[in-house]
Specification:
140 residues; elongated; mainly alpha; 434 Repressor (Amino-terminal Domain)
């Protein structure tokens, strides 16, 4: 039991190759940043991180923490789901501009559609549609 203890390496972090999912999320980060007309340096400064760390996120070399991803989604005006759901590439627009206004979740659409279908009186249904159109027009 005498003698020096074996030295441990200075870095305990394990190296890993970028996962496909990390690269997909990084690509979406880049798309949203470019759509907003920001440089990597501007995006990094807005996130309170170094330019180098931002580059790693965009390249998928470093996994972005979910709280930072959420903040990026807010800052870029895109849905968190748009940033995260590109694993299969199915059903999502490749154009981030499609998500730059307050995105409507699929669940909201299904719920509203079901509620509208439950209104049996055609006049009432048309009145609700008119209200929604007026509200949407004000928001635009």
């Amino acid at each position: 039991m005498d003698g020096p203890r074996p030295r441990r390496s200075a870095s305990r972090a394990t190296s890993r190759a970028p996962a496909a999912y990390d690269r997909a999320v990084g690509a979406r980060l880049k798309q949203a940043r470019v759509a907003k007309g920001l440089t990597q340096g501007q995006a990094a400064a807005g996130a309170g991180i170094s330019y180098q760390q931002w580059q790693k996120y965009e390249k998928g070399q470093s996994r972005i923490p979910v709280e930072r991803l959420r903040a990026a989604a807010e800052a870029f005006g895109v849905g968190l789901g748009w940033l995260m759901e590109d694993r299969n590439g199915a059903g999502f627009s490749e154009d981030p501009a499609a998500y730059l206004s307050a995105p409507v979740r699929e669940w909201d659409v299904r719920r509203l559609s079901g509620l509208l279908a439950a209104i049996t009186d055609e006049q009432d249904r048309n009145a609700v549609q008119h209200v929604i159109e007026r509200l949407a027009g004000r928001a635009a």
